[in-house]
Description:
Strand content: under 5%
Shape: globular
Pfam families: Sugar_tr
Number of domains: 2
InterPro entries: MFS_dom, MFS_sugar_transport-like, MFS_trans_sf, Myo-inositol_Transporter, Sugar/inositol_transpt, Sugar_transporter_CS
GO cellular component, one term: membrane
Membrane topology: Multi-pass membrane protein
Number of strands: 4
Helix content: over 70%
Subcellular location: Membrane
Amino acid sequence: MGLRATEAATGNGGGMRSLPDFLGRKSKYVRMDDVLPDEQGDGGGGGGVVRVRGGGGSGRYVFACSVFASLNHVLLGYDVGVMSGCIIFIQKDLHISEVQQEVLVGCLSFISLLGSLAAGRTSDAVGRKWTIGLAAAVFQAGAAVMTLAPSFAVLMMGRLLAGIGIGIGIMVAPVYISEITPATLRGSYASFPEIFISLGILLGYVSNLAFSGLPDHINWRVMLAAGIVPSISVAFVLLVIPESPRWLVMQGRAAEARAVLLKVTDGEDEAQERLAEIEEAARVTATGNGKAVWRELLRPSPVIRRMLVTGIGVQLFQQITGIDALVYYSPTIFRDAGITTESQLLAATVGVGLSKTVFIVIAIVLVDRVGRKPLLYVSTAGITACLAALAASLSLLAHGALPRAAAIGAAILTVCGFVAFFSVGIGPINMVLSSEIYPLRLRAQAVALGFAVNRLTSGAVAMSFLSICGAVSVAGAFAAFAAISALSVVFVHVFVPETSGKSLEQIESLFGAGAGAGEVELGDAEHLVQGKEMS
Length: 535
């Protein structure tokens, strides 16, 4: 018993689907919760054709809001990408040591975790929308200070501000997107921040290559100054996007929440239904407060503990396998493989950024069609294989068992493969899971805690990578990353449930105690209708 998914009306008739509809469409199933009654369709004579939530004009509006909310992630990506080239010229201009290089690169992640933690409270106090604006303003200030820095100390002060801004931005966007998006689109749209990070990394690499010909005391400053441009666009974003309806309900502003829901749904009935669901979930928090939330997170019940293990574990494994070390220090890796000139090194990094961006687009298309868990399996297994191959090729080159040309080719292939597998799975899906598995009363703080772990791990890897390479070689460092990555495959199998197509409130049932969790998930399958033909 099911419905013909290809005939579900989405505002495009029988013709070509729009990009938002294409990204949100699933190949086999739609949720019964997300099917609108026939009388809400195009009026009579539908012949059994039904409409799916998120189609038509509301789908395009949600798509636009998700894109705009993700723009801050360009800042993080740009900073990561541009610093890989800037550090070469900063070292020449300011004569900093290797330890200072590690501190300059790695401190961003440590500082951004402070922003992530602050963003949880800030987004609950002033709203998701204005927290997005705050993140851009703080980053702009930091980028300006770094651009004009006359010394390493002043450069670090700017890095401090930029890191806080990035930390705020990377926490709030996934929460905002998950709270305005229907379940059938949430996985794809919540992946947008990762594609903007990848785009930012690519832009940073291109900036390195474009401005590397300038004098050493100017080029790195121009590279950093260019990062201010994306943050300026956020001022326009604040004029366009609405506040999160879930946050508005938590503030007792149900009428405003309903007005927002009318924009992001396909009719008054659906808007009223979603408002009722949000109000029901918000009642749990009516007598709570910030301190109570943190007490519940620090002394969790078994169900909340399982949520935290899943959410924080995915955030940890995303970074501990070395993605930021590879992106920040890709010139070092390629130099160790045999590439010598600065222009060739920077050109190779552009290829890495392009690979990362292309495959994140593929992930966005697949995340709601294939599901979260299958993509995580492919991603973690592929990362493990690429890391092992990279470590082996660098080791063989060091022992003279591999020709230089072959080593360069293997390094470029495995590094691009690493970022491709990362981008098609654990890169974007960690954001999706983090923003959808927690109950409303804990969501902002729990997501902030997960991002804090993510940034702490990223900083530890980035700040220690050069020292580890000096102690055990670049090949040894990536062999260790490969071993850790193998553990991530096991983690996904044991701890990560499939959340695709379920409402935020229904996902909570997947973490029920003991064997009941499996029974609940099986029962939830009764709300799925197979995309064949209604019988």
